[in-house]
Amino acid sequence: MAFKGTIVIDKQRCKGCSVCIENCPNKCISLSKGVNSKGYRYAELSSDGCIGCASCAIVCPDSVISVYRVKI
Amino acid sequence: MEISDMIKPENLVYGKPALLTDNVMHYCPGCSHGTVHKLIAEVIEDMGIQDKTIGISPVGCSVFAYNYIDIDWQEAAHGRAPALATATKRLCPDKYVFTYQGDGDLASIGTAEIIHACSRGENIVVIFINNGIYGMTGGQMAPTTLLGMKTSTTPYGRDAKLNGFPLKITEMLAALDGTAYISRQSVHTAAAARKAKNAIRKGFEYSSKGVGLSFIEIVSTCNSGWKLSPVEANKWMVEHMFAKYPVGDIKDVLK
What we know:
CATH class of chain A: Alpha Beta
Helix content of chain B: 25-40%
Number of domains of chain A: 1
Radius of gyration of chain A: 12 Å
CATH topology of chain A: Alpha-Beta Plaits
Number of domains of chain B: 1
Helix content of chain A: 10-25%
Strand content of chain A: 25-35%
Number of strands of chain B: 10
Strand order of the largest sheet of chain B: 3-2-4-5-9-8-10
Oligomer: heterodimer
Largest sheet of chain A: 2 strands, antiparallel
Strand order of the largest sheet of chain A: 1-4
Structural class of chain A: alpha+beta
CATH architecture of chain A: 2-Layer Sandwich
Order of helices and strands of chain A: EHEEHE
CATH superfamily of chain B: Thiamin diphosphate (ThDP)-binding fold, Pyr/PP domains
């Protein structure tokens, strides 16, 4: 059974600490090129390798990540 | 499958706990406080004890904890959270009472309060955030600062002759008869955060069983005080803090 997932990041609340990037097992999160209204570069999904493991969301200090997962 | 097809409420596997308010946390980017707040909110939500939980917030960065978790809170004077928690628990024995304290609050100015609360075996939970520094006031040396660690008051590193040795208060408290569950955890990875959540949950369960005080230390980072990026601070913590403060359960009377 395989899973495919995706994450939704609240860009305005993200502070760009990069802890989620370090914790992603498939390395599919990166920092954005642009900045949010507070001047932080925010995290965003950069490849389709997400399996919906929620590791990023669990370690996110500001709880800005929602994780969705489906079986394929 | 398109990404837009996945983003539906029935596919949601993890999101912000409902108990966390919508206020933007004032903590620095990557601060462990936010993660621990989330774990506490998840535990309270999972146990369904929102209306029966009273938190005691400390003095320190986490002084505004009452703005972020939607439960009843009290604000204690510096270091006096265990004393306030004692009174709250004794007056309302059916409530779950926990304190949330940093190392400057608990291990320095509040040492007497925590030792005597542990010695009396109050049925409360103490969440102790140990980052080895006074974060809010500008990164001064705390009792838990490691030897050789540079802070604004020990710019050449902590020297044992001048500043004494780091205080392993968790091990000290484990020696007291009133404590039921003592554990040291961290939140730098998803696996560590899950273990920390289990430890916090165990603490809340023990407090309702009336077996004594539960004390959960979270070894955490202060990337602003340590002058490192959040990711580098986590690595530094694993390399240096864990040598002095090894993670794991230290005491469990029901085991």
